[in-house]
Structures are given as C-alpha cells and as structure tokens.
Amino acid sequence: MYELIIIGGGPAGIAAGVYAGRKKIKTAIVTDMFGGQSVVSNEIQNFIGYTAISGIELAGKMEAQLRAQDVDVMDGDRVMEIEDKGDFFAVKTESGKEIESKTVLMTAGSRRRKLGVPGEKEFDGKGVAYCATCDAPLFKDKRVVVVGGGNAGLESVTDLIPYAAEILLFEYKDAVKGDAVTLERIQKESKVKIFTHTEVVAITGDAFVRGVRYKDVKTNEEKEIPIDGVFVEIGWLPNSGLAKGLVATNERGEVVVDHKTQKTSHPRIWAAGDVVDVLYKQNNISMGDAVKAVLNIYDYLLRDNK
Ligand SMILES: Cc1cc2nc3c(=O)[nH]c(=O)nc-3n(C[C@H](O)[C@H](O)[C@H](O)COP(=O)(O)OP(=O)(O)OC[C@H]3O[C@@H](n4cnc5c(N)ncnc54)[C@H](O)[C@@H]3O)c2cc1C
After folding, report:
1. Which of 170, 197, 232 is the last residue of a domain?
2. Please, what's the b/e burial string for 275-289 (b: 16 or more CB within 10 A of its CB; e: otherwise)?
C-alpha cells in the first residue's frame, strides 16, 4: 500500500515526486513520458535557473532528479482507472498493474486543442507553436499568424508584438471575442491585422513553415500567403477524464481545487498543474502548485497516521 500515487510525469508530477521522496512519503509515480508538454520546445527561455534550455534537455534533468529520490517510478505506462475503495484507491494501469494508495495526486496535465489541418503535425515545433508566452522571442522580425480570437489568441498577439514584424490574427467567427481592452490595445498596432470569418485550411513549408492556406468561410474563397509561423490558440483540453465522478470539475473540464492546498472536492485526491482550474498554465506555476499539494498531503498523512 502506497501513501501517495502521482499520476503524470510532467513538471508538476516530477516536482511532486521530488518533494514526496524528501518527505519520505511512500510514493509511486506513473507516467507515459517525462517532461510534459514543453518537451517539444526547442528553447525554453523562462524556466528559472536557465537562460535557455531545450524541452528535451530539461525533461532529462527533471527525470534524473526524480530518479535520485526514494520513490517508485513506473514510466512507459498510463493510469486507466482510479477506483475509490473507501479508505484507499485501487489504480489500474495500461500494463495491467493494480496499485493501492491512500491518496492520489493528479498531475495529468492537458493537451492543446489542435486545428486538425494538413501540415499542423508535420511542422509542430518547426514554425507551428502553441504557447506565445514561451516561444514569441523565437519569431523576431518574422511574419506570423495567430489562430483564435479569444483571450488566449489576443494575449498571444500581445506577446508577439515586441518581436514579430507582422501578426495576422485569424478568427473563424464574425467577431473577435476576447477582452475589449486587449483588443483595443492590439488594434492600435499597425503590425497587427485582424481577419474574421477566416479559417486555416493547411500549413505549408519545407523544413519549416513557409506558408498558410486559409479560407473566407463566407465566400469559400481560398488564398495562400507566405508566413514564418503559426500560433494555434484555440483552447486546451484538460486530461481530467480519469477523475470523472470522483472530483468536481468546471465547465472547461478542469479539476476544481482549493488554491491554498490543491485539494479537490474529494478528501483524499489532490491535483496540480495544467489539469486544474489555475488561470496561468506554465511550467514554473505547475511545479510550485504541485509542491504545495505534496506538503498538504504530508500534513494529511501525519494526521491520518496518528
Ligand atoms: C509547445 C509548448 C511549449 C511550452 N513552453 C513553455 C515554456 O517555455 N515555459 C513555460 O513555463 N511553460 C511552457 N508551456 C506550458 C507548460 O508546458 C505547461 O504549463 C506544463 O507542462 C504543465 O505541466 P503539468 O505537469 O501540469 O502537465 P503536462 O506537462 O501536461 O504533463 C502531464 C504528464 O502526464 C502524463 N499523463 C497524462 N495522462 C496520464 C495518465 N492517464 N497516466 C499517466 N500519465 C499521464 C502526460 O503524458 C504528461 O507527461 C508550453 C506548452 C506547450 C504546449
């Protein structure tokens, strides 16, 4: 019987594993891979402690730190089901393991909603990007498209303004629906051009993105223009399906937590990182929140064992 099972080996899960090991909590961590979503980034420039580091290198350093702890690392596997047995959980994995644990920490993260057009997958990390906060400086003096006129899209445009030469914002609907104040601010910038009722049809290129084909959804007219990058900002999908029926989620499917402790609506399940209803989804934030969760789980286990 473990005291804690951590689900997911992104920055949140790894930070939790390091703290749990050092607190001598009997812990198992199950993950299909290490490093999480930013593993595809060529250069992460805002991870504190490194001026710049690739996603893969960072994932390797995180994994090494995790493996140096006294925790059971079960990688290359996925949690498929969490069953509440009353005072413990039975957690089933894809490889057929059944792990028993007193508490659960969900750090299964999220996945970006994809455009699903030709070229998107091929050029992922080669001009197609999903995080302007992270990657805007890589597009200095470039011409880029931001897809999505919600707040995420508008904020991406704001992040790109100091760097890109020209920014084209594509919104599928008739109007941009993000915050009016941000919209007003970006409309004042001559380098920003807004295209409504516009849909990306394909992303083209060679080794890197070179163009985008788009359609006016009113007239069905298609055009292809040269472009150096495409930022996809059409939302994200939290990996919260596992906890369905066990914990409260919001309208976006994010796990609702108490942000002081990362506790969910279930007394023995905590959650941290991109899977929860945190406003800003970032590596540094997900790790800090996961640490908070483990310290609270430690307090819970001390009380529980009295
Ligand atoms: C392309 C890109 C670049 C980014 N760049 C930056 C950046 O430069 N700086 C920054 O601060 N943030 C960046 N971000 C955001 C950052 O990556 C996330 O905020 C962060 O990864 C969240 O960490 P997490 O551990 O909560 O979740 P994730 O990183 O999503 O990790 C979750 C992990 O859990 C695993 N998992 C999921 N379900 C299961 C399951 N059922 N069983 C086992 N394992 C499971 C996943 O495979 C994954 O490994 C970027 C995001 C993207 C998409």
Report:
1. 232
2. bbbbeebbbebbbbb
Average pLDDT, the chain: 95
Q: Does the pLDDT at position 45 exceed 60?
A: yes
- Which atom, in ligand 1's list, is nearest to the CA of 33? 49
Taking residues 60-78, report their average pLDDT. 98
What integer pLDDT is reported at residue 306 of this predicted model?
46
Give the pLDDT mean for 195-213: 97
pLDDT at site 305: 61
State the DSSP code for 38. Answer: G
Q: Is 133's pLDDT higher than 90? A: no
Q: How far is the CA of 57 from the CAs of 62, 164, 200, 217, in angstroms?
A: 9, 27, 33, 42
> Which two tokens mark 88?
């413990």
Tokens of 74: 């079960």
Counting ligand 1 atoms within 8 A of each CB, the residue from 115, 275, 283 with the most, and so the one to mutate, is: 283
Task: Answer yes or no: do 221 and 247 share one domain.
Answer: no
* Residue 181, both tokens: 């104040």
Length of the chain: 306
Those residues with Cβ within 8 angstroms of residue 193's Cβ, 6 or more apart along the chain or in another chain: 166, 167, 168, 169
Same-domain check for residues 224 and 136: yes
Is the CB of residue 11 below 6 angstroms from any atom belonging to ligand 1?
Answer: yes
Cα of 12 vs centre of ligand 1, distance in Å, is 8
Q: Which of 53, 97, 131 has most ligand 1 atoms within 8 Å of its beta carbon, as the pocket-test mutant?
A: 131
Question: pLDDT confidence of 157, banded at 50, 70, 90?
Answer: very high
Domain end point (choices 232, 267, 295): 232
262-303: per-residue pLDDT in tens?
999 999 999 999 999 999 889 999 999 999 999 999 999 998
State how beta strands 72-75 and 27-31 pair.
parallel
Q: Give me 35's structure tokens.
A: 């490093």
Q: Which domain holds residue 246?
A: 2-111+236-304
